[in-house]
Specification:
Purple Acid Phosphatase, chain A, domain 2; alpha/beta; single chain; 18% helix; three-stranded antiparallel β-sheet; 206 residues; seven-stranded mixed β-sheet; globular
C-alpha cells in the first residue's frame, strides 16, 4: 500500500492550487476548459495505481476504475479541438513505473480513442531526464519535457523507437505549448534559451 498517501496528498493540496470536490476531498484529477480551443485533463497517476511490481494484465491499473471512466467519457464528450492529457509519466519506453508497466490499461485507453474517433488528443508528460516528441500509432501526439534541473539522460529510452519523432539528450530543457486558431505548436528550449525543436499541426475537428 501507500502508508503516507494522506500526508503526501495534504502537502500537495497545501502547496498547489488544487480544489477537490467537496464530496471527494481526496480527489486530485480534474479537467479545465481553456477558452474555445483547449480542454485539459489532469491525471492522478499515483493515488489509485496498482503496485508497479505486479504483472501487467486486465487487473492492473494506474488510474483506477472511476478515474479511467471519467477520462474516457470526458475525452469522448469534449468539444475542444485540442484535448490535452497531462500525465506525470510517459505512455511508452520508460519502464514499469510509467505506462509501459501498465500497458494493458494504456492500450485500452488508446484503443477507445481510435474506436470512437476522438481527435486532437495531445499527451504532455515528464518525470524523465530527456525531451522527446512521440506520435503513437493510435494517432495521439505526446510531448515529453525534462529535466528542468536534474541530470540529463545521455541515452534516452525513447531514442530510435518506432513512435519517436524527435528526442534530445544531455541538455536541460523546458517545453512550451501554444494553441491558436492556426494550430497547435510544441516547442522545446534549452537552458540557454535556444530552440531545440518545434512541432506544429493544424487543429483537428471534434
Amino acid at each position: 500500500g501507500f502508508p503516507r498517501r494522506r500526508a503526501h496528498r495534504r502537502r500537495l493540496q497545501e502547496g498547489a492550487p488544487v480544489r477537490p470536490p467537496r464530496q471527494e476531498p481526496g480527489r486530485l484529477y480534474r479537467r479545465v476548459r481553456w477558452g474555445a480551443l483547449v480542454e485539459v485533463f489532469l491525471l492522478d497517476t499515483r493515488q489509485y495505481r496498482s503496485p508497479a511490481r505486479h504483472p501487467d494484465g486486465p487487473g492492473k491499473t494506474m488510474l483506477g476504475a472511476a478515474q479511467k471512466r471519467w477520462l474516457l467519457e470526458g475525452l469522448a464528450a469534449s468539444t475542444a479541438p485540442v484535448k490535452v492529457v497531462a500525465s506525470s509519466v510517459p505512455l511508452r519506453y520508460h519502464g514499469r513505473d510509467s505506462w509501459e508497466g501498465y500497458a494493458h490499461e494504456r492500450d485500452e485507453i488508446l484503443a477507445f480513442l481510435r474506436a470512437r474517433a476522438v481527435r486532437g488528443v495531445v499527451v504532455l508528460s515528464g518525470d524523465v531526464h530527456y525531451p522527446a516528441l512521440l506520435r503513437h500509432p493510435e494517432g495521439v501526439v505526446e510531448g515529453i519535457a525534462g529535466p528542468l534541473a536534474a541530470f540529463p539522460n545521455p541515452d534516452p529510452p525513447a531514442a530510435g523507437r518506432p513512435a519517436t519523432v524527435w528526442w534530445g539528450f544531455a541538455r536541460f530543457n523546458v517545453g512550451l505549448v501554444r494553441v491558436a486558431p492556426g494550430g497547435l505548436t510544441l516547442e522545446w528550449y534549452d537552458d540557454r534559451g535556444d530552440l531545440l525543436y518545434r512541432f506544429h499541426t493544424a487543429l483537428a475537428g471534434r
